[in-house]
Amino acid sequence: MKQGLGKLEAQFFAYTQMRKIKSVSTGEIVSSLALTEDQERKLLSRLALSGMIARVRRGLYLVPERLPLGGNWSPDPFTVLDTVIQDRKGSYQICGPNAFNRYGFDDQVPVRLYAYNNVISVEKNVGAVALSLIKVDKNRLGDTEEFQTTEGVNAIYSSRTRTLVDAVYDWSRFNSLPRAFTWITDELRADRIDATALVMATERFGDMGTVRRIGALLEKEGVENKLLKRLEKLLRPSTSLIPWIPTKPKRGKVNRRWGVIINETA
What we know:
Elements: H1 7-18, E1 23-25, H2 37-49, E2 54-57, E3 60-62, H3 77-87, E4 92-94, H4 96-102, E5 113-117, E6 122-126, E7 129-135, E8 144-148, E9 154-158, H5 160-169, H6 171-174, H7 179-189, H8 195-205, H9 208-220, H10 225-232, E10 242-243, E11 253-255, E12 260-262
Parallel strand pairs: 5-7, 10-12
Antiparallel strand pairs: 1-3, 2-3, 4-5, 6-7, 8-9, 11-12
């Protein structure tokens, strides 16, 4: 333990470590440590300010299993995410840059943990952990895979196929176009994803822009027409055109079937 740890602090960590407590809420240790509410509040505040525990929100703190040498501690990112969302009785799935890295689409390791969820939109720091929480309708959650972390947390990620759909759907948030087109092409050609599964995920989680862009890409890749027709049925009559790459000028060959300007060389 940190040298010079006060009596109350030492009692606190002895109590949490003996009981293998990973989080503490206000009021939880008052009777156990014979504290007043004011003493408890000041103790938790001191520990959070000194970096020995991590404040999730007012009245809720994450606690280390063992206090590291030097006393400074930051919780595991997946534990933080799970705690924040479960505290609000919500659901989540890790998405965007973290999923891009997990599946090998991008080798850049994100400094933030991105997650779609159905309870809160906020950028939040807990200890040294930075979260970008993106609230979506509950119907936009789904198509996930779970991985157990070294800390024993079940981390819920968007699936490989769903992640590619989101890379097109949420391109402005994740800065993922035109890279996503290359990812999808490579995954299809290597048989790491199935064209039918991609169409199904696009039907379920895409908007019109996503349907148009993925439809044009699949047509370019020679995907069988019955799958293209499934996406085509989702299109609404429109004379407007959208750019293949949204960040480039709208100049290029027009794909009338999907209403897309193929501006990849613009």
